[in-house]
Amino acid sequence: MPNSLTIATVLPACQSLELGMQVHSLAIKLGVELDVYVAISLLTMYSNCEEIVIATKVFVKMTNKNVVSYNAFFSGLLLNGAPRIVLNVFKDMRDCSQEEQPNSVTLVSVISACASIFYLQFGRQVHGVVMKIEVQFDTMVGTALVDMYTKCGAWQWGYDVSRR
């Protein structure tokens, strides 16, 4: 009998929306739809199939969201051209979960969303979050910040980041 691990492993191999929905139905039937690994696999599958509305419903139903689930959702939103929603969900993540800190993958996604809509003010706030939570200032975060500042016309701030 398949279990949550089986479902979470099979979902990424689904080559079509129809097959993915059949596996989703099986997850519901087995009662494992809300398992965090299954839910992440479902929202990734739906995002990859350009079904962002269904992916959003899966994310909203998740009861045990963690940084990995947020990152998967952010990636799906960006993949499907919804950067503003990334910013709203990031605000919710920061407001609702004190113990769930964003990691460098989270920050790169949010900074990239800011760059894609030229939202300098929010990007500067995210830069402040980077400094406040003392996330390891790695090359990915630094590059995303330089890209965002440059795209938003604040090349001097981008230059300052690149010098670190």
What does this structure look like?
This protein is mostly helical and 164 residues long. The protein has 10 helices and no strands. Helix 3 (36-48) runs antiparallel to helix 4 and helix 6 (83-96) crosses helix 7. It starts with a helix and ends with a helix.
Label this structure with key terms.
164 residues, single chain, mainly alpha, 73% helix, elongated
Task: Write a brief structural summary.
Helices cover 73% and strands 0% of the residues.
Topology (elements, then pairings):
Blueprint (H helix, E strand, L loop, with lengths): L3 H7 L6 H14 L5 H13 L3 H10 L5 H13 L3 H14 L7 H13 L3 H14 L5 H13 L3 H8 L2
**Discrete helix count:** 10
Number of strands: 0
Helix percentage range: over 70%
- The portion of residues forming beta strands comes to under 5%
Task: Please provide the ordered H/E string of secondary-structure elements.
Answer: HHHHHHHHHH
Radius of gyration: 17 Å
- Span between N and C termini? 54 Å
Class from helix and strand fractions: mainly alpha
Q: Which residues form runs of ≥5 with pLDDT under 50?
A: none
Largest sheet: none
Based on Cα principal axes, name the global outline.
elongated
pLDDT averaged over residues: 93
